[in-house]
Amino acid sequence: MATLFAHGIGAGLPSGFEGRIVKRQGSGIEVANAVAQFSTFALPSDVGDFGGGAVNLMGNNDIFAVLFEYGSDSVGTRLFAHQGMPRPLGTSDFQPHVLRRGLTGQSGTQWFFTELGRPFTLYVVLGSHARRSVLVPRVNRLLEGLTIEPSSLPAVAGVPWN
């Protein structure tokens, strides 16, 4: 099992998964966020935060997942009120209409949550909605291996965590 760790996010990758954890560079007023991406297919180097340029490469048996961290100003807001990463996920959590860019046959889920004072979204795309009963258990094995550490910096209104 490969293990990744960066920016307070850890991942024990199940067999068949690859991943990366990066921090996007902010520009101007844009916040630099941690982004962790995982897939069962080769990720292009220039994939967008939520899978743009990658999800169109997925086969019926593929999975793409992302943990995207938001700025500290999101903590305590209604959108991020759910405490803890949602897991395990069920087949009914995945629907075609959830996808940011719907591709025929695919299915997705998106959850906003706060864990240890850090706001995230979990976004997962399945290569086939019809095969979700086979794919969702694989997603759950991935989620079991994900860890989030508290920020090492105090939350200050308007100042992003590094």
Structure write-up:
The chain is mostly beta strands. It has one domain. It contains 1 helix and 8 strands. The chain has a 5-stranded antiparallel beta sheet with strand order 3-4-5-7-6, with helices on one face. A hairpin with a 2-residue loop joins strand 6 and strand 7 (118-126). The chain is globular and about 40 Å long. Residues 154-162 have low confidence and may be disordered.
Distinct helical segment count: 1
Main beta-sheet strand count, sense and barrel state: 5 strands, antiparallel
Q: Total number of β-strand segments?
A: 8
- Helical coverage, percent range: under 10%
Taken as a percent bin, the fraction of beta residues is 25-35%
* Domain module count: 1
Uncertain segments are 154-162
Main sheet: strand order: 3-4-5-7-6
What is the approximate shape?
A: globular
Distance between the termini: 28 Å
Structural class determined from secondary elements: mainly beta
Order of helices and strands: EEEEEEEHE
Which value, in Å, is the CA radius of gyration? 15 Å
The chain-level mean pLDDT equals: 89
